[in-house]
Amino acid sequence: MTRRESSADIDIAAADWAARLDRSMLTSAEQGDLNVWLAADSRRLGALARAQAMLVPLDAQAQDAAPLLAVPQPARFSRRALLGSGLSTAAMAAGGAWLFLRAAPERFTTRKGEVRLVPLADGSSMTLNTASHVEVLFDAHRRHVRLIDGEALFEVARERQRPFTVKAGDMQAEALGTVFSVANIPSRPLTVTVKQGRVAMRHARSTATLALAANMQGTIDAQGQLASTDLAPGTIDRDIAWREGKIIFSGETLRSAAAEFARYSDVPIAFADAFTGNRTISGYYSATDVSGFVEAVSLSLGLRVAPRDGGYVLSAQTVIS
């Protein structure tokens, strides 16, 4: 009879994978081995998250030197804190509970054009979109995330005793086990979009609660008004295409598209006339490839392109009176 793998055995393997992820990006073969290992036992994902949670983020200098990411990449960590601390693998196996106890929040950020996958200590995961800033604080009674600005997708491990809450501005969203995104973007309403499960959304200064189920979106406007919308099939996958480094447009104006690209790149897109800016487009584009987007829309819409101030100016082929 095959012996069931013990938690200690899982923690030992998880520590090894965490160290390998720290040293360098995995090869395709290694990534395949990791996926197979994770899929074979539901306990392994949480063990890997705990092992990585023992490590500290790379220092700021290394962060600044890292290239911008156009697609999601595993979070990068340093082994120095783990190795210098003298913590043994046995301590990791025995100390799963105290890994959740943190005196101060962990901070995670992405720069413009970067997308980052962050495993959390409870087995949940968080994917940060471009230019996002997040604080995470887990303790014995709660799992709390503060989205200071930007956008994040959460895949939440179910724990009935510790609800998972996300605070963004004056909004708080609470879930048990679900997949949902939160957007806290200047000049836009605070938004919660639920892909799976249920989320309770409320204003920080109100007792009113908005119950959101799968394929629903909730918003809070500048006046604190709550509103919900049922989403058409496929809408959420389109809205979170950013986690794959993509932007999908479906009937948006070029001006709106330019504003979306500005979230990911410092290459500006301008319009010589209102008519051009109000033309509509649909399509699937790389979020950081502004030149590719400009070339594609100029060809499909018959527009002129001129360089200006490190970016592009689009105009109609004929003068619009």
Automatic annotation (TrEMBL):
Give the FecR protein domain ranges: 107-199
Q: Where is the signal peptide?
A: none
Q: What parts of the sequence cross the membrane?
A: 81-101
**Gene Ontology MF terms:** sigma factor antagonist activity
**Keywords attached to this entry:** Membrane, Transmembrane, Transmembrane helix
Checking InterPro entries in the record gives: FecR, Ferrdict_sens_TM
> Please, which domain of life does this record's source organism belong to?
Bacteria
Pfam family, any one: FecR
Full protein name: FecR protein domain-containing protein
Organism in which the protein naturally occurs: Sphingobium quisquiliarum P25
Question: Taxonomic lineage of this organism?
Answer: Bacteria, Pseudomonadati, Pseudomonadota, Alphaproteobacteria, Sphingomonadales
